[in-house]
Specification:
Helix 2 packs across helix 3. The protein has a single domain, classed as lambda repressor-like DNA-binding domains (434 Repressor (Amino-terminal Domain), Orthogonal Bundle), CATH 1.10.260.40. The protein is globular. It is built from 6 helices and 2 strands; from the N terminus they run βαααααβα. Helices cover 50% and strands 5% of the residues. The chain has a two-stranded antiparallel ribbon with strand order 1-2. By secondary structure, the protein is mainly alpha-helical. The protein starts with a strand and ends in an 18-residue tail after the last helix.
């Protein structure tokens, strides 16, 4: 997944710390999202979009590999770990 978070943050002249504080997440969360190491939850994505006054689609875009992935694969536990969901 690609993000324009850094672009929008620069346009608003905000530091990562400012954004994290404004949407009530840790600085590490904003850093990880900006650097592609983490995909935000829907709630965090919506808070970010609201903070920047844009849509979630303006902030996050699927990459081709994301489009090819089956939706249920996103939540499947790794094969080398036991399923602890029930």
């Amino acid at each position: 997944m690609q993000t324009t978070l850094r672009v929008h943050r620069y346009r608003k002249d905000k530091r990562q710390e400012d954004v994290a504080r404004a949407i009530d997440v840790r600085l590490a969360t904003i850093n990880a999202i900006e650097n592609g190491r983490s995909i935000p939850s829907l709630v965090v994505a919506m808070r970010l979009a609201e903070y920047f006054n844009i849509t979630v689609n303006d902030l996050f875009m699927l990459e081709e590999s994301d489009r090819k992935q089956k939706p249920d694969e996103t939540f499947a536990p790794p094969t080398d770990e036991p399923n602890t969901l029930g």
